[in-house]
Amino acid sequence: MSLMNPISKKFLNLFIRYSLLILLSLGSLWIFYFIFTPLTVYPLYFLFNYFFGATLNGTIIHVRGIPIEMIEACIAGSAYYLLLIFNLSTPEIKIKQRLKMILSAFIIFLVVNILRIFSLTIIYLTGSSLFDIAHKLFWYIGSIVLVIAIWFYQVKKYAVKEIPFYSDIKFLYKHSILIKRK
Predict the structure, then answer these.
(1) For residue range 92-122, what is the model confidence (pLDDT) as tens digits?
(2) Predicted TM-score (pTM) of this structure
(3) Is residue 67, in this structure, part of any structural domain at all?
């Protein structure tokens, strides 16, 4: 039997979720780049090496003698963080389901990001004049649309009923001193 009442549990859950978001944002999202840089660079290297022959030097993949540097923008740590924000700012998700959602969102984004970088590099290597426009479209529109699409997919797949931030604000307001109690 728990010593906490249901309202106290919800407040504690809310505090933990937002504390995690704050902690993970410290240091310019370094944790996301630490985890996802090798998870992005090595599969890309293996793809380029398989199709074109490539060498790897840190985060620079040399394809046909042309260096392709995987900078933080390529890794897209902020996109992973945005997926985490959507997840952790949504109440009423059981911990096991929340972990499944985070893991699946990260895997989907990682795979699509690797394919995006691979495709853009092929466009670049062919000398196509479409590279600049494709790169900008993927960067400015594609990544945002992808993150939102992943979130909506998860909302449907996992039957999420709450709304990020809004549901928490509604809960806080309902239990605040701003409400006149009868």
Answers:
(1) 999 999 999 999 999 999 999 999 999 999 9
(2) 0.92
(3) yes
